[in-house]
Design brief:
- The complex is a heterodimer of chains A (112) and B (403).
- Chain A contains 2 helices and 6 strands, in the order ααββββββ.
- Chain A is α+β, with helices and mostly antiparallel strands and 112 residues long.
- Chain A has a 6-stranded antiparallel beta sheet with strand order 1-2-6-5-4-3, with no helix packed on it.
- In chain A, β3 and β4 (72-77) form a beta hairpin.
- The longest helix of chain A has 32 residues, at 5-36.
- The radius of gyration of chain A is 19 Å and the shape is flat.
- Chain B has 403 residues and is α+β, with helices and mostly antiparallel strands.
- Helices cover 26% and strands 45% of the residues of chain B.
- In chain B, β18 (296-308) and β19 form a beta hairpin.
- In chain B, α2 packs antiparallel against α3 and α6 packs across α7.
- In chain B, 16% of the residues are buried.
- The chains are: A alpha+beta (112), B alpha+beta (403).
- The A-B interface holds A 64-70, 89-96 and B 23-24, 27-28, 30-31, 34, 36-45, 48, 50.
- β5 (81-94) of chain A pairs antiparallel with β2 of chain B, so a sheet runs across the interface.
Chain lengths: 112, 403
């Protein structure tokens, strides 16, 4: 049984509405954080990446580790994936919210 | 691993190695289950090593079962494991217990006394008075009556207006507030007294502003004699007391003597220093000697004294500077130059700084020949102010009035 054209249209409308409401919410959050001068990463629950030269990386607000090798680490964050290439990569510290990676870092890539 | 690390790490940490296909999932599950892990390192693909506290190790079982990883302990660190390793060596436990006991026992005594707020009174004086009052290094803190000590201290030292004792660990901090002293001028304005000679000499100028001058100019005065009496005499009214004021100047004499020898032995230091240790028990010095007997040394001592069961024991460090005796011969001309230099130096550094408005009036140099040299004797006559205000007791005043 195929889906009717009417039902299809209805479903598309719902999806569109959802996306629109989500974007509206995120825009409202941005405006709210801007108005109260709050840091964006706290309000929007986005990820903050701090790097010290090419030896240390601190990632705040990550979700989980997807791949972990000696020369490659892939981390899932709220909006994207972080890919770190390097040599002798160690996870120095891991907590519920923070992650510290130590080693010789060659590159840091963002994947949406 | 040092002892400080061991003590900090009381519970113990273990280095764990996991092997399996889902090592990332293992790490994520550790995080979700609140198992704290750190220093995570991939050795080869599928083999990860990390550190964790020994207490959380049992929680890994569930995570390992879920992810199908094998878990191995590679290293154990911490005080818990060290003590477990030496559990059969009773002497270690005995020593640890002794150390704890001694630490607790010695912390009940006062080992340091710090004094604050003393500007005019010396620290040594306060400490000696505190010792008399019942607070000293080595005194037990238990049953220490601070109020009694403070009361005794205030009775013993009249210059203290307030005192307080604060004990922090083994340090007793004594805070004192000194009495404010009146200036000499203020005393002279408020109290009745006389002007007294503080040195022997012949009076050259005597001006009595308040009171009655007892002596005249050109009269000889000895130290302690009253020059201006703080009493006014009149034909019409009865004598009354006033604070004596005035200027008293006198010629005072000072002498300087020194022998100068043509041939003299002097110390020449060889820049070689040796340190020796020793101990003193009840003023009997015991130096662990390691010095060369053929050579001469200038020895100075530094000591750290403690009191144990009523006996004074001090641990000493001797600094021995090596020197040689060198014979030096000088001509008469050289010695005369040296003597004139010494004469001027004595006048400028020893006499004049200790006088009030002192001026040199006369200088008489006498040289006497002695065996192997000569002796210089110098008499200085210095004109200076010698009057000093001394507060008078009422009883003395009454006696003088009746006379």
């Amino acid at each position: 049984m195929g889906i009717n054209k009417k039902e299809k249209k209805k479903w598309y409308k719902e999806v569109y509405k959802n996306i629109k409401s989500k974007t509206q919410i995120s825009e409202a959050r941005d405006k709210f954080s801007e108005f109260l001068e709050l840091p964006n990463e706290v309000v929007n629950s986005s990820t903050k990446v701090t790097s010290i030269e090419n030896k240390n990386i601190l990632i705040e607000g990550y979700k989980q580790i997807m791949d972990y090798y000696d020369d490659y680490i892939k981390i899932k964050t709220h909006n994207m994936e972080l890919v770190i290439d390097g040599k002798n990569l160690d996870i120095k510290e891991i907590t519920d919210y923070e992650l510290v990676i130590q080693g010789e870092i060659y590159s840091l890539n963002y994947k949406k | 691993m040092g002892i400080s690390d061991n003590i900090q790490n009381i519970k113990g940490t273990v280095t764990v190695q996991i092997e399996g296909f889902f090592t990332e999932r293992f790490i994520n599950l550790c995080r979700i289950n609140n198992i704290k892990i750190w220093d995570i390192r991939t050795l080869v693909k599928g083999v990860v090593r990390f550190k964790m506290s020994a207490g959380d190790f049992k929680k890994l079982r569930m995570v390992a079962r879920k992810t199908k990883c094998s878990v191995k302990i590679k290293k154990k660190e911490g005080l818990y494991f060290t003590m477990f390793k030496y559990r059969k060596r009773k002497i270690i436990f005995f020593l640890v217990a002794m150390a704890i006991f001694l630490t607790i026992a010695f912390s009940t005594f006062i080992w340091n006394i710090d004094i604050k707020g003393n500007d005019n009174i010396s620290k040594a004086e306060v400490i000696s008075m505190l010792k008399k009052s019942g607070l000293f290094v080595g005194k037990c803190k238990i049953g220490l009556d601070k109020k009694e000590i403070i009361n005794n201290l205030r009775v013993n030292m009249q210059d203290i207006s307030w005192a307080g004792i604060e004990i922090d660990g083994t340090l007793a901090t004594v805070k004192i507030v000194e009495k404010t002293k009146l200036d000499e001028k203020d005393i002279q304005n408020t109290k009745i007294g006389d002007i007294v000679a503080k040195k022997d000499g012949v009076i050259t100028r005597l001006v009595a502003e308040d009171g009655t001058a007892i002596l005249n100019e050109k009269s000889y005065v000895q130290k302690g004699n009253i020059i201006i009496q703080g009493t006014m005499f009149s034909k019409f009214i009865e004598p009354f007391d006033v604070p004596a004021k005035g200027i008293v100047k006198a010629d005072c004499s000072y002498t300087f003597e020194k022998e100068y020898l043509y041939n003299k032995t002097e110390k020449k230091y060889t820049n070689k220093t040796r340190y020796c240790i020793g101990f003193t028990i009840n003023l009997k010095e015991n130096m662990l000697n390691c010095l060369n007997k053929d050579k001469k040394y200038d020895i100075s001592k530094r000591a750290k004294e403690i009191k144990l069961f009523g006996n004074k024991i001090s641990f000493d460090l001797y600094k021995c500077v090596e020197y040689e005796d060198v014979k030096i011969s000088k001509t008469k001309q050289e010695l005369l130059e040296e003597s004139t230099k010494d004469i001027d130096e004595y006048l400028n550094k020893e006499i004049l700084p200790n006088t009030i408005n002192g001026v040199l009036v006369e200088k008489e140099v006498e040289t006497l020949d002695i065996e192997g040299g000569f002796k210089t004797k110098v008499t200085y006559i210095v004109n200076e102010e010698i009057g000093e205000f001394v507060e008078r007791n009422v009883s003395i005043v009454n006696e003088q009035v009746t006379n």
